[in-house]
Amino acid sequence: MFFKMLMIWMILISILISISSNFWFIYWMMLEINLMAFLPIMNNKNISNCNSLITYFVIQSFSSSLFFVGSMMWFTKSMSLFLFIIMISMLIKLAMIPFHFWILLMSESLDLNALLILLTIQKVIPLFILTKIKSEIIIFFSLASSIFGSLMALSSKMIRKIMIFSSISHMGWMTIIINILSNFWIIYLTIYSLILFKFFNLLKKNKVYSISNFFMKKFNTNEKIMLTSSMMSLSGMPPFMGFFMKLISILMIMKISLLITMILVISSLINIYFYMRILSPIFFLLKNFNKNFNIKKMMKTSFTNLNMTMLIMIMSSMMN
User: Fold this and answer.
1) Which of 148, 200, 263, 315 is most exposed by smallest CB count within 10 Å?
2) Does residue 129 share a domain with residue 77?
3) Could you list the residue range(s) of the whole structural domain that residue 244 is in?
4) Residue 211 resides in a domain
5) Distance between CA atoms of 314 and 312, rounded to whole angstroms?
6) Hey, CA dihedral for 320, 127, 72, 40, is it positive or negative?
7) Rounded-to-integer distance, Cα 177 and Cα 251, Å
8) Do 27 and 116 have their domain in common?
9) Which stretches make up the NADH:quinone oxidoreductase/Mrp antiporter transmembrane domain (predicted)?
10) Greatest Cα-to-Cα distance within the chain, rounded to the nearest angstrom
11) Closest CA to 141 of 237, 269, 263, 253
């Protein structure tokens, strides 16, 4: 446990060094350190986990090599082709469509802690590198990820795969925000990570791994409230926190293109649908809700969320 915590600190240090540097060689070095530090975190002493370790190592090494070659060639000749190679290498690391197959192969053998880090912290350096690249081509990958990530989640029954497809959809939002030269993606990723952290804690506590588990588990009232708020926030349902981060994103993207905004709104509606489908067992099996409902506690939580929302909106306006 101590060794894994040490590796998490190594990942955080590599992220801090990357965002404080302006050299492409440092980015490549931090990507490699990030890769080597995450491998022990993935190891859960399971035979089926070996395939995931090998898959992750091969894919990440390939994308890092692609990034190294592309950046070196770009400094030599400054051709747009080499910037495209760098962009593709980062899209592979982000597991965006159509480079998402490797993360699906790993989903079942990873524990929830490793999957949480993979979907949140591990995305920081590739997203930061994409801020250094201005390319209109990335919009097509972003829109494809936001739409197809939402559509593929509809046919998934396992919670882990649903979270992966949801993450792919959110990555589409963040890369579009990056492409319009806004720093709001940092706040977007931070809010998304916090919501996902709370949701994964609830899943681990109740040992929920598929949609069918929601019918068999008996949640108490507080857990039902937390699950509902977390999943509605992930989907972007108002008035939860996830809605405000998407609303601010839409207001910024509308200034660039209405078509892109419409596609993103459609993907968000699809997200709301499949999260509501997951939550339906909780709604139908809700018993004695009014008896156990703590209105004072919920009012306090609502005011806290409102204050956080106002703070984030002020920060985003300052950053833009």
Assistant:
1) 315
2) yes
3) 134-288+298-319
4) yes
5) 5
6) positive
7) 11
8) yes
9) 22-270
10) 70
11) 263
The two structure tokens encoding residue 262:
């419409």
Q: What is the pLDDT of residues 110-163, one digit of tens each?
A: 888 888 888 999 999 999 999 888 778 888 999 999 999 888 888 777 788 888
* Cα radius of gyration (the chain): 20
Answer whether residue 293 is part of any domain: no
Whether the upstream peptide bond of residue 238 has omega within 30° of 0, thus cis, is no
Q: What is the pLDDT of residue 92?
A: 92
Strand runs labelled E in the chain = none
- Compute the distance between CA of residue 264 and CA of residue 104 in angstroms, rounded to an integer: 23
With cut-offs at 50, 70 and 90, classify the pLDDT of residue 217: low
Q: Show the tokens assigned to 187.
A: 């706040």
Nearest to 269 by CA among 169, 186, 199: 169
Phi/psi for 158 (5° steps) reads -90, 135
pLDDT of residue 309: 45
Tell how far CA 200 is from the center of its chain. 13
Residue type at position 175: T
